[in-house]
Design a protein that fits this description.
alpha/beta, Aminopeptidase, seven-stranded mixed sheet, 12 helices, 9 strands, about 20% strand, metalloprotease, membrane, glycoprotein
Length: about 400
């Protein structure tokens, strides 16, 4: 018998075969998609999509360049703005002089009042689960109120707040010289403005405190980037106004849930929680936190475009919050809260500063329970395949309707 031929080996598929090519194209497409998403997120977070306007921009537009001129005076020319330092007094006099210059140039249709006050006092608060008592003496506040020449002294007003002192050893460019420059530039464009060392002293003692119906507190825990609404309330009214009017919305209701565990605080709690319950917003720079409260908080480390985005947002918010119809809506909401009708806030988030998604807590209970309902119903649907999808859909609607009625009763 002739010897049997050895079995022929099947040749291995070539590295460039059709299967390999399809996989490579899929991986390449995924890599390109992730790279594009990362680049887009980087540009948005660093405000690269916002073009800052120069100091020569038209006077009717908010200009980052003009803010930087004030900021250079506060953070470069003045050596330091720490408590008890000569620089802090120099900063106060510079701010007061700028505001008085605005008042002198205002037209006859405006009434602009500028006041300098010294406040002293003390208060207690819970901070990181510990009770802390703070005392202060002879802190200086610079307050400016802008109204029409036909306004009454007790007409409702909006408070825009920012502090002008800086931490020990820090020039305080972002925290919070930028806040002062932005507030001053917003006044240039058209509101009670508070440049403070002691917000508690203002809200407890100043004669204008009883007119405030809403407030916006601007802060910085970094050198720019996302200008996050980290706290809002009481109720959903302030965040709803922000969602409707901000040009570059940057807000997330989760931030408020997490703020309590952060070892820091702002003047928001003075206005909205501990002393009064005025509705308002707390807006902070969050990127570049490694510069926060250090000697590197300088003009050069500010992220371009961040001040422009914050200023344009603030300008729109000031116009919205001073709308008489919205202030009336706020008063109705406050009256309902006093009558026991609770406004528990809302769920909201922005999409890459392009738009905001905003819905009530009642709607969120339905939307966030829907995946659980689907998870529970799918095994039953697989177990009884003869039952139509429509019948399961009707069952699901009945289930959700029952939950809604239960929540309403609750």
């Amino acid at each position: 018998m002739p010897p049997r031929a050895p079995p022929r080996r099947r040749p291995a598929p070539a590295a460039g075969g059709p299967g390999f090519g399809d996989s490579a194209r899929v991986l390449l497409a995924l890599a390109a998609l992730y790279a594009a998403m990362s680049l887009l997120a980087y540009r948005v977070i660093h405000m690269r999509h916002v073009a800052p306007l120069g100091a020569d921009a038209p006077r009717g537009n908010f200009s980052e360049g003009r803010v930087l001129q004030h900021l250079r005076r506060l953070a470069v020319d003045i050596p330091g703005r720490q408590e008890g330092s000569p620089g802090l007094e120099a900063a106060a006099q510079y701010i007061k002089g700028e505001l008085q210059g605005l008042a002198a140039r205002a037209g006859p249709e405006y009434r602009i009042e500028v006041e300098e006050t010294l406040v002293s006092g003390s208060f207690s608060m819970m901070f990181l689960r510990h009770r802390v008592t703070l005392g202060y003496r002879n802190h200086k506040n610079i307050v400016m109120r802008v109204s029409s020449n036909v306004s009454e002294d007790d007409d409702p007003s909006l408070l825009v707040n920012g502090h002008f002192d800086s931490p020990l050893g820090s020039p305080g460019a972002a925290d919070c010289g930028s806040c002062v420059g932005i507030c001053k530039s917003c006044v240039d464009l058209f509101l009670c403005m508070l440049f403070n060392q002691g917000s508690h002293g203002f809200i407890k003692t100043h004669r204008w405190n009883r007119t405030i119906r809403a407030f916006i507190n601007i802060e910085a825990s970094g050198s720019g980037g996302t200008d996050l609404v980290c706290q809002s309330g009481p109720g959903s009214w302030p965040s709803r106004v922000y969602a409707q009017t901000a040009k570059y919305p940057m807000a997330n209701s989760v931030a408020q849930d997490m703020f309590g565990i952060i070892p820091g605080d702002t003047d928001y709690r003075i206005f909205a929680e501990d002393i009064t319950n005025i509705p308002g917003l707390d807006i902070i720079f969050v990127l570049g936190g490694y510069f926060y409260h250090t000697s590197y908080d300088t003009l050069e480390n500010l992220l371009p475009g961040s001040i422009q985005a914050r200023g344009e947002n603030l300008f729109n918010l000031v116009k919205a919050f001073t709308n008489p119809m919205l202030l009336k809506e706020n008063e109705i909401s406050n009256k309902a809260a006093k009558d026991g009708i609770e406004d528990v806030g809302a769920v909201f988030f922005d999409y890459l500063t392009w738009f905001m998604v905003f819905y009530s807590r009642d709607i969120s209970l339905i939307l966030h329970s829907l995946p659980i309902a689907i998870f529970l119903l799918v095994p039953l649907f697989l177990k009884f395949p003869n039952i139509t999808l429509m019948s399961w859909f009707v069952t699901l609607l009945g289930f959700m309707r029952g939950k809604t009625e239960m929540w309403n009763v609750h």
